[in-house]
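Title: [Solved] Light-harvesting complex I LH38 protein 3D structure

Original question kept below for reference.
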Amino acid sequence: MSKISAFATGAAAVTAATAFVGVPQPARQPTLRGTQRSTGATANGTMSSAAGLGLGLGAMGLIASLVRPAPSPAVRSGIARCAYDASGEIGACDPLLFWDPIGYCQDGCTKEDFDRRRAVELKHGRLCMVATIGMVWPDIFGKFDGYLSPSQNLKFADVPSGIAAVSKVPLEGWLQILLVAGLIETQLLKDQSFGGFGYAKYGQEPGNFGTGYWGRKIQDPAERRLKLTTELNNGRLAMIAMSGMLIQNGLTGQSPIEQLTAGHISPFNDGQGFFAFDPSQELGACPPLGYWDPFGMMAFQDEEKFRRNRELELKHGRICMVATIGMIVPDLFGRFGGYLAPSMDLKFSDIPCTIEAIYKVPTFGWLQIFALAGAIEAKNQAFPENYGYPPFWGRINTLEPEEKQKKLLAEINNGRLAMVAMAAIVAQNGATGQSLVEQFTTGNLNPFVGGYAQLDASDRLALRAEFGSGAGKSTAIPWDPIPEGLSNDIFNNTYVGDVGFDPAGFAKNQRLLPWYREAELAHGRVCMLAVLGYTVQTSGAKFEPFITRYPTDSADPLKAATQVPIVGWLQIIVVIALSELWRYENVISKYSQGVQPGDLGWNPTAPVSSP
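Solution (posted by the thread starter after getting help):
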């Protein structure tokens, strides 16, 4: 992918991220005392200005505002400025109501600030709605015939879908696009929202250019508000969709339709697109987990980065294999006789088999350890060599390729196990103050119970009183207060399992809270079935002959989904739709009659409340 395409991807992502502001709605406007209150503004939007023109004019406005002479502080007015209450504006609707996570409409936000952000939001939303269509239309319905630029022998068919098209359009074409966009903004729509802070004029209703709804003036206030809300929400969705498509297009090098038709579901390391290197085919991807990368270490990486990560994995694994032995062997077989440091009267028998040993070894001992390790590292860096199998015995390249692969795989897996084991041993050592062998010999298998625990029961109760529900804090997030709308009672009769976890603030909308619980339970049930199906698929227990005559031999469940024929997917969708309709008729629509969210009535003898 060209540098221009990569730059466009990043720019589009940043633009959409800054443009997507959870916007409020009309309510009352705190005004300046002594001034006339303006009517609540509803929002519509603006068609977009060209990016370059808008950015340039915005920069000019910012520079002009910076060079203005500061107002004289001699005259002070008694007028108090209040933050504009935007929670009643169009756009504050279900399910999030007034959503302003970044705090744009908090302290210091005026009506002018809100109008500017609403105009920007509408403009970006309208642009992204058109751009989203432009990202998929050419691949579905085809491109124009003829030439885009006869002088450069460039046909419309030569322009790819997606951000790669940016580098294909000639400079004269971009100038024409910017000119037409500017004429539409300034002459046709008479948009006055140029100039940025202190210069732009947004009118009584930002984004309303008097064009109406398909040329029709909507008279009914309720219908008009519905249409404006719909436009705003569609624009928000389009901004998110456009951001996702541009980023994925930049990562894969394919347009959305090309990705779907090629079965390119993941943009990372599947042999296609920008990250073509596939680490799942490398040594170490084996049953039962296959290719396992829970921390996403290979996301956005190439083969060189993989080799570097593999080298670190092997090195840490080898060290942890030795360290795990070192945490156990001294307690089982005894320590060396004699002195570790005669000058300090420190014997080997004085060194514990715990992490406390770190503080027992003198400084000169650590320097010797580091010097030896550094010399080995430097030698391997300058003169890398194959140590053979067994290592250091001089038997080089004696294994057959198949046997060598088996030995290397065993080393990787043993190193992984040793890293997990070492982490657990150190953590349990820190919790109990005992080595692993001491824990087993004393029966201290639970580090949190009994006389071996680092904190007794009274200390743990004190911590719970300070950070838990006893202090008015969330059980799930002990340092945060209980979210509005939740009880933080795990045995709540209505919402069992309420542990005060609501970082997004969904529970504020009490009217939709039963629906949220319904959705949570439905998703949980579906995921439980999906995990079961995933396990069955990877274990090889399939029912291929009874489902389809088409081959479904993939061990990858996600890839197997692409092998189900269209008729099969239609059947699945029909079954899901009928199930959802039944659930709506028998559960969701009967909340007011006492039916609890998620209660499908399959177990009439089940208790209706928690103990």
